[in-house]
Design goal:
Blueprint (H helix, E strand, L loop, with lengths): L4 E2 L3 E2 L3 E2 L8 E3 L4 E5 L2 H10 L11 E7 L2 E7 L9 E7 L6 H8 L6 H10 L6 H6 L4 H8 L5 H4 L1 E7 L4 E3 L8 H12 L3 H20 L1 H4 L1 E3 L3 E6 L5 E6 L4 E3 L21 H13 L5
Antiparallel strand pairs: 1-10, 2-3, 4-5, 5-7, 6-7, 8-9, 8-12, 9-10, 11-14, 12-13
The structure holds adenosine-5'-triphosphate and magnesium ion (2 copies).
The site of one magnesium ion has 4 residues, from loops.
Amino acid sequence: IVNWSPFVVSFKKRWVQLAGHAGNFQAGEDGRLLKSYCETEQQCLQQLMGDTLRPFVPGYYGIVQRDDQDYNLMDDLLADFESPSIMDCKMGTRTYLEEELLKARERPRLRKDMYEKMVAVDPEAPTEQERAQQGILKPRYMQWRETLSSTATLGFRIEGIKRADGTCNTNFKKTKSREQVMRSLEDFVGADIQILKLYLQRLKELRTTLEESQFFRTHEVVGSSLLFVHDSSGKACVWMIDFGKTVPLPAPLILDHRTPWREGNREDGYLWGLDNLIDVLSTMLPT
Ligand code: ATP
Ligand code: MG
Ligand code: MG
C-alpha cells in the first residue's frame, strides 16, 4: 500500500528533508543549510572540494556553530528550484560498513527484538533454528534487511520521493523488483521525457567522473545517496549527498565499485548500482 503523507519537514518554504532525523538540519543563510556535524562527513566534504567530483556534490563551507552545536555548512541543493520534485536514492549493494559488521559480531547475543522485527516483515524469513531460539544474531539481521529492498538486487534503493504537489512517500522499504522500482521512477519523473533525458545525461556524466575520481577510488562509499531534483520550469539535476559512512581505505587498497562484495574486499557496489539505475531509466525512454 502506498501511503502518501504531507512532507516531513520544510522551512523557508523551500527546503525539504526526505530521510534522516529531522533534527539533523537547520536552515542557513544565502541558500545554504546546516547538517549536524559528523567528522567522517566533514573529512569527505572537505576532500571533495578539491576532487573532480566537486560539481556533483553540494558546495561545502566548513564547520559552524549554532546554540553550542557543531554543524557542517553546505549548499541547499533545492535553493534554485521552484516547488521542486525530489527523490533520494541510496546507492550501493550494502548499507552498512564492514567495520559495523565486525562490531556486530563482537560478543554475539541472540536478539529477540530483531527476531520480532524480522517476523513482522516476513514470517517465513527465520530459519528453523532461529524460530526455536526466538532470536537472531545482529549480523544476520543486517544482511537480511538488505534483501528486502532493491539494494541487494539492483545496487540502489529509493529512500523517498516528494512530488511537486507536496505529497511525500518514504515507504519504499519493500520496493524490490525492477518493475516496482521502474513504476516508482515513472511516477517521480511523470510524463516529461525532457526531464528524464536531463537526468540520464547528468548520471552518465557523473559515472564518467566517478571512474576518474581519486576520492572515489580510495573510499568505501556506503549509505550515500543521489538526490534528484526537478521542477516545472524544466530544470533537472542530480547530486551526491550524505557522506556519514564514506570512509577512506587503507593505502594502497582501491575499489572499482563494481566487483561483487566479499567480506574483506570492501567493495560497495556503488557503480554497479549506478549502471543499473541508468539502465532502468534508459528503458523508460520512448523508442
Ligand atoms: P540518513 O543517514 O538516515 O540517510 P542523514 O541525517 O545522514 O540521514 P542525509 O541523508 O544527508 O541525512 O539527508 C537527509 C535528507 O535531507 C535528504 O534525503 C534530502 O532530502 C535532504 N538533504 C540533504 N542534504 C541536502 C542538501 N545539501 N540540499 C538539499 N537537501 C538536502
Ligand atoms: Mg541519507
Ligand atoms: Mg547519513
